[in-house]
Amino acid sequence: MKYNKKKNKCNGNRERDYGLMNPTIHDIAKRANVSISTVSRVVNNPLAVREEKRQRVLEAIKELGYEPNPFASGLRDRLTKTIVAIIPDIANPFYASMFRGIEDTAREQRNNVMICNTDRNEERFFEYMRYFKKKKVDGIIFASDPLKEHYYKGFEELNIPVVLAATKSEDHLLPYVKIDDYQAGYDAGMFLIRNGHKRIGMISGPKSDPIAGQPRYEGFLASLKKYERLADDSVVFGDFQYDSGYSGMGKLYGKHPDLTAVFAASDEMALGAMAFLQRRNIDVPRQVSVIGFDNIRFSRMITPPLTTISQPIYEIGKEAAMLLYDWIENRDTIPKGKQLQHELIVRDSVSNRNT
Amino acid sequence: MKYNKKKNKCNGNRERDYGLMNPTIHDIAKRANVSISTVSRVVNNPLAVREEKRQRVLEAIKELGYEPNPFASGLRDRLTKTIVAIIPDIANPFYASMFRGIEDTAREQRNNVMICNTDRNEERFFEYMRYFKKKKVDGIIFASDPLKEHYYKGFEELNIPVVLAATKSEDHLLPYVKIDDYQAGYDAGMFLIRNGHKRIGMISGPKSDPIAGQPRYEGFLASLKKYERLADDSVVFGDFQYDSGYSGMGKLYGKHPDLTAVFAASDEMALGAMAFLQRRNIDVPRQVSVIGFDNIRFSRMITPPLTTISQPIYEIGKEAAMLLYDWIENRDTIPKGKQLQHELIVRDSVSNRNT
DNA sequence: TTGTACGCGTTATCAT
DNA sequence: ATGATAACGCGTACAA
């Protein structure tokens, strides 16, 4: 009774400043001469309402430009229309490009995507997890580090779809989108071999990294062993960052001053290696060739322009987001992951020793 | 009556699966033996409640791990708890760093920030504007290009707070956060002069750019004129990107092969200039010195490491976001903008000619 | 099939 | 200073 009066008064008020106000489910109901539940049904379960009314409602929705209020439905505990991208650092161009892929498909779905920069810090990761328990999100794209066991546990608690981008899980079957890192490492080695290099070194990522570390390392080794090139002790391990590339090249050069080519598992490490060489007045590529990995924006801007393995990083993000939405829409079938193709970008940092 | 019964039943239910459940304001209230209004006050306006009770409430909040439900408050106050960052491209490290500043303060406010990459494309900008008219946002940080007149018109329609980051508006008084670009250009010129350079060139941004273009150009000119160094026709104009730096250096070198130093209005253009020189076997910095602008992540990773003017870009983002939140909270007083300090980062790309 | 009314958690208003 | 309660917009159990 009292309730009803209030409601009417409320609607009455709203009519006045129309156009400014966002139409609600009530406005649509009135316009279409149905009840709010009918409107709600049309939106959420269209088949449950008679054709004729459905049309009326649909029309009213169009005319008034109705969009459900995400806070109201969020409060009621449904989808929040936002997904999360967990990445190490958006200021890293590699992840930034991936993010653009994610973002573009999210926009197509009229969805929001929230960035979480972990800075590779576990504490921050779990902080986010706690936050998500409150403020629900529909799904997660995880692109930070290899997926550790307790990270997985965190996801499990949330009980929402998670897909992996440029990484994968050994023990759990979460869908992932990535390239074939083993093959890519193999290809890098082969490229050097085909260019006549005999003594080849590598600056690898950490062996403990089951994605960008070990596979690239092993693919590379395989190519070398096949042609009986130098191997094993001509490999040094870094953390993908510039400084470890610089110092890694230093170690390598100390042990094997006769190296003619080096494969770095990231472009940043390749930059570091080149910096070391150039500061020692060792010419790249004439004396030592360098091949990188990632094809970041700046790899073409340095001197000499860097030959590198390109990951289709934008597409990885895009594909991962699409998989995620598939899963969100159809909660009970886990989508299958995908392998995307890498590509060798030939620029000027590798010399041909065959001639 | 009926109401009360329901409430009790509900709370009764909740007690059981505690630990799993997120505590609400009601749970805190009960625990602290106060009303929910008091709890709400403690959270939003602590000074309005007596010390003793406040402590009790605070303690209960700690113990139960209460966090306000953003959906509920969003529903109440019509704020969407999301702001928008309009930038050219998140894959550009300059904007990525700014974004991190924005994001970090947004997170403090338990807010979401949505990225809009315009790619410097007007069409995309207005697409976003249309989107915002539907799905409201609380405020905007604009960091894309100079603010054109019809962009401003777009904002006006939305009728929400907008603050400018690393840019400003000539005609409208939107708050902005930026450095003093004129002074920065002046400082760059002075640094070259103090290092004994006599014939100095510049690769500027477009003169039509009233922020990163003209002021840096004029500040630079002012320093040169003061000491009667070469000026005017030793300036060439680019678009801040790598390629224009490369070709710009080409033009400059064609006209003035005797130049000993060049100031580039962006690090990317500086990279381009260095690439041109190095490919001509002109040594940097021995034969030609280069100073850049921005201090992007990679400026220290090239050979030689780039001397440059550093914008506190993270802080610019952070400060802009804080201004925006001030404005959102207090809709009727436009906050005043801020000028932040730039800094000269001396590395190895400028030689000293005095000795 | 359709409509009514309650509850989600919070804040603001109004009494006290 | 504190407490009761309406209202925000939506979804859904239940009634019709």
UniProtKB/TrEMBL annotation, chains A, B:
InterPro entries: HTH_LacI, Lambda_DNA-bd_dom_sf, Peripla_BP/Lac1_sug-bd_dom, Peripla_BP_I
Record-level Gene Ontology MF annotations: DNA-binding transcription factor activity; transcription cis-regulatory region binding
Keyword field contains Secreted: no
UniProt-listed PROSITE patterns: HTH_LACI_1, HTH_LACI_2
Domain HTH lacI-type: 23-77
SUPFAM superfamilies on file: lambda repressor-like DNA-binding domains, Periplasmic binding protein-like I
Keywords (A to Z) from UniProt: DNA-binding, Transcription, Transcription regulation
Coiled-coil stretches noted in the UniProt entry, renumbered to this chain: none
Protein name: LacI family transcriptional regulator
Organism: Bacillus taeanensis
